[in-house]
Amino acid sequence: MKFDDFVEGKVVILDVSGKIMGGDETTMFHGKIHEYITSNNKNIVVDLAKVDWMNSVGLGMLISALTTVKNAGGRLVLANITKIESILTITRLITVFEHYDSREEAIKSFAA
Predict the structure, then answer these.
(1) Which of 18, 45, 81, 90 has the fewest C-beta atoms lying within 10 Å of its C-beta?
(2) Which domain holds residue 13?
């Protein structure tokens, strides 16, 4: 797994790619979430368009990120979940995560 991060307006974008299977990258992902929360950037979009595959550790990473952001008074949404939609549906996590078909839609959701 790799990820790039940047701020677009008042929204943090975490652009994730590859296979999400745990390891050092997961720790770095959590560190980045905490870094943004600490700097009061609590509107976060996790863009999964470039994710090829995800295991249970990857699901745990997303759940942990969601919980961390919510507990800090923020909001985390997913974008472009097409490739992992089946695993989110099977695990019923599709009902836990707010998700959008595109990054643009996800960003616009923060303006509402």
Answers:
(1) 90
(2) 2-108
